[in-house]
Amino acid sequence: MEQYIKAPMSKEDAVKLQAGDYVYLTGTIYTARDAAHKRMYEALERGENLPLEMGHNMIYYMGPSPAREGRPIGSAGPTTASRMDKYAPALLDLGLLGMIGKGKRSAAVKEAIIRNGAVYFAAVGGAGALLSRSIKTSEVIAYDDLGTEAIRKLEVEDFPVIVVIDSEGHDLYEMAIENYRTEES
Amino acid sequence: MRTIEVVEITRNIREMCIEANHFLSKDMERAMRIAAEEEKAPLGRQILSQLQDNLKIAGEDMIPICQDTGMTVVFLEVGQEVHFEGGILTDAVNEGVRQGYVEGYLRKSVVKDPLIRENTKDNTPAVIHYDIVPGDQVKITVAPKGFGSENMSRVFMLKPADGIEGVKQAILTAVKDAGPNACPPMVVGVGIGGTFEKCALMAKRALTRSLEERSPIPYVRELEEEMLNRINQSGIGPGGLGGSTTALAVNIDTYPTHIAGLPVAVNICCHVNRHAVRVL
Q1: With DSSP H G I counted as helix, E B as strand and the rest as coil, what are the percentages for chain A, rounded to 5?
Q2: In which domain, by residue range, is B190 found?
Q3: What percent of chain A has pLDDT over 70?
């Protein structure tokens, strides 16, 4: 089903999304990948505040290529989400409601998704030029020294994603493969 | 003896880094177009059609096809009658990478130390493989390698008794474990034989072979075709979201090996299988 969702999304929006839904996001999302997650996690361990409020927000696992003059961003597709699995449950428990990446998630992340009524979306991997067109502005808000891995605030318009793991824990990667598997096992 | 100035190497590598990150080779372009037409799953077709749009936008607007513009792998086949002047060849290659990535708006994805992890800010150093060959030419292949798929690549040190069935299982295991993480449809490079490092290098090199060229060895050609069919029966599909196109090609190279061993390397590449080739 096609859905148009505002970001950050409400808890009601999150729970109505189902694995397999094709979603266009419009609003504000934040980028963070490996190095930013490690830093946020270490800040939490020390009892410090995060540079970004988790409440209802969405994190896009992405590190862009540099923007040419006059453009908000360069190529901007998703990176592999499983590298963030170690850090994601703590952020979900703080209120993070959406993650955008590509690839499988761990059992611990799935449990945290269900526990918090959150959603894991996939953007199409390797479509960074196309996806950059849905990003209207980009601003570094924390960890500037990390370069491409800094935390960015993005304004997006009809940014296309697919619900892979919904708030009940259904996993599109597992469901869809079975539909097209023709090999003998 | 032919003399080549190393600044020529720098200039070519600089241009090739930019070219490879914005334009796929003709055989890759064709394979992606055919896949978009033949995919059975509706969502899979939609994804492949988006990837067609992505390639068009990348070339027209000069935005890298993928934000992961890779660690730069360079194969240099140097004719033994060539003499280089004007500096150190390896430095000239890295200078080309530096200029290409900084001036070409490509992402700098290389950290100086694998554990300290400080970005070198110019994507150097490249991973360079030199070969000395007959003649007076220099063949340069620049292959930026993204790490979503690199991380899913594997080396299997099989036993001779595992035989061809063991090789097939190794390839299928690597591809299925990779699944959606490696941005399918993938290209699968396989090296069989040699030593631990030789099979890995063959697998990497196999990714630069044209998708339309099969192995000249009859049984290897059959293995390539069988593996491609079986991978595409896995159901993984474009983006790992289900479908009939999981791989575009399986390219396999072989080499003599030791009586005690059967090394197999599977180097997985995403659909952004980039390489630019020039002969000086």
Answers
A1: 30, 30, 40
A2: 148-273
A3: 99
